[in-house]
Amino acid sequence: NAGVMQNPRHLVRRRGQEARLRCSPMKGHSHVYWYRQLPEEGLKFMVYLQKENIIDESGMPKERFSAEFPKEGPSILRIQQVVRGDSAAYFCASSPDYSNQPQHFGDGTRLSIL
Amino acid sequence: AQSVTQLDSHVSVSEGTPVLLRCNYSSSYSPSLFWYVQHPNKGLQLLLKYTSAATLVKGINGFEAEFKKSETSFHLTKPSAHMSDAAEYFCVVRTINTDKLIFGTGTRLQVFP
Q1: Would you state the pLDDT for residue A101?
Q2: What pLDDT shows up at residue B106?
Q3: Pairing state of beta strands B3-6 and B23-26?
Q4: Are the C-beta atoms of residues A48 and A56 closer than 8 Å to each other?
Q5: Do A100 and B41 touch (CB under 8 A)?
Q6: pLDDT score at A70
Q7: Pairing outcome for strands A109-113 and A10-13
Q8: At a CB cut-off of 8 Å and minimum separation 6, what does A31 contact?
Q9: Mind telling me how many Å the CA of B45 is from chain A's nearest CA?
């Protein structure tokens, strides 16, 4: 039973480019969460999605960041016009469609901005 | 608002000695609490969870945690540290409305031979 799959594991972008991070949840999981971990810090919640719906995006920066979880395919976290401050590890987690279940994390995408 | 506070940013122990990683929580209702471990350049692995059942929770790799409402604490312990336990440990609370996780700042555990 494959876990949460994130790709790429490492992503390098120049300032002003776009970054696309992908997350495939565990089989049978319909809830996806994105977290960001800045260097030497804990994880901070960004967005919570279910299939085709954004449930909570209170942690998302207002500009340049967007997320989707289409009916088919992985969840995508998209960062437009990246800046140095976007350098971080981005983690995806998933959980099944019933309450009180823990979230399972992927290995993350480490984004570096040159 | 819910939050967790990890009282130590670094803990160092010798192999074979006990481990204590401290966490205090703040919540206006009965919280769901977790401990996750992160090894270098890896994702987070769930060690254990508390969801208002038994107050002493046993997890993987010999870890356990005790929920103490009177002290608003959820400390993580292990009787005997192993070299492979060296990692970053996060105490986490889950919000009740949207299930998002709120992380503590982490405790880095070092284990010396």
Answers
A1: 79
A2: 94
A3: antiparallel
A4: yes
A5: no
A6: 93
A7: parallel
A8: A25, A48, A49, A50, A94, A95, A96, A97, B99
A9: 7
